[in-house]
Amino acid sequence: HIDRVQAIARQVADKVRENPHVVNVNLDWSEPSKVVRLRIDQERARALGVSSAAVAKFLSGSLSGTSVSTYREGNEAIEILLRGPGDERERLGMLGSLAVPTASGKPVPLDQIATLEDGFEDGIVWHRNRLPTVTVRADIYGKEQPSSVVAQIAPTLDGIRDALPSGYLLQVGGTVEDSARGQNSVNAGMPLFVLVVTTLLMLQLRSFSRVLLVWLTAPLGLIGVSLFLLVLRVPFGFVAMLGTIALFGMIMRNSVILVDQIEQDIAHGSARWDAIIDATVRRFRPIVLTALAAVLAMIPLSRSVFFGPMAVAIMGGLIVATALTLLFLPALYAAWFQVKPGERLGGYNPAAPQGQA
């Protein structure tokens, strides 16, 4: 069945070569290696008192060597091997003249009990999930991303996939598979992430309404992430996704600072409308400076091949989200709690206990 696997792999390779964005299409199984096979004449071998196991053991000791002892030099153990001379091991023409010991004690040449045949076989048989596997590999030409190229090639393989015999599989590997595996691991941890962040926000803000306000500001970063990735032509891969998740935390931190300042001003006697404006003005500089420090720290990473997408995602998302947070969050707070322009003391105070104003 290995020959069948190789035949299917060559069909897949032909389809991959048809894509204009790939070059150097190859298989991970190298060229076959030259081998010498022994066909033992069992009747003659039994007549001479030689078994197949004895022939295999003799050839292994003669060519590879048999361990007879160990030499110690300090803390290093050096194995001592007993094997035939170099000419016998390096010249295949002398293989048939090797003297094989028999039960009677009289050795016989190897070619009297076996026939030597030259042939070819695969030097390495790769396995995946315990199945012999051939990997079709290629290099991408140009600025196309692996996911885009795979999406282009996948429909052309439907005919081969439909014709696969039972037990044969055609799967996507490489960077696309690694990215999907990483995505699945992140998806598995997202519920815990949401639970922990919501719990921490609840401990800080002590209000479902204010926690929801903070959560609503997190998606604002996607605007800047998408804009910067498109402008700079950077792919949104697994690393960029991790940067986006980290960005959500930075945005919500700024939102917590602003909401908490508004609540403190209201608790200290400020009118709700004035508290929203004054808190935004006072927290403008700290929020902008901390965001600017994070953006500047990402500039060296933006030139990295691996961390570049993450840095671009954080930079773009933080720049746009900071500006939008300072405008969107105060307006959302005023709309959520129905704060009217020019409102003075005596209005509804969301920070006060129920039944108080």
Keywords:
357 residues, Multidrug efflux transporter AcrB TolC docking domain, DN and DC subdomains, Multidrug efflux transporter AcrB transmembrane fold, 3 domains, two-stranded antiparallel sheet, elongated
Question: Could you please describe the fold and organization of this structure?
Answer:
With 357 residues, the chain is an alpha+beta fold. The chain folds into three domains: 1-32 and 125-170; 39-65 and 74-121, Multidrug efflux transporter AcrB TolC docking domain, DN and DC subdomains; 175-337, Multidrug efflux transporter AcrB transmembrane domain (Multidrug efflux transporter AcrB transmembrane fold), CATH 1.20.1640. It is 54% helix and 14% strand. The chain contains twelve helices and ten strands. The protein has helices at residues 2-17, 42-48, 52-64, 86-90, 146-153, 158-162, 174-205, 208-217, 221-231, 238-267, 272-298, 308-336; strands spanning 22-27, 33-40, 66-73, 76-82, 99-100, 108-109, 114-121, 127-128, 131-132, 136-140. The strands form five sheets. Strands 1-10 form a two-stranded antiparallel ribbon. Strands 2-7 form a two-stranded antiparallel ribbon. α7 packs antiparallel against α8 (208-217). Mean pLDDT is 83; it is low at 346-357.
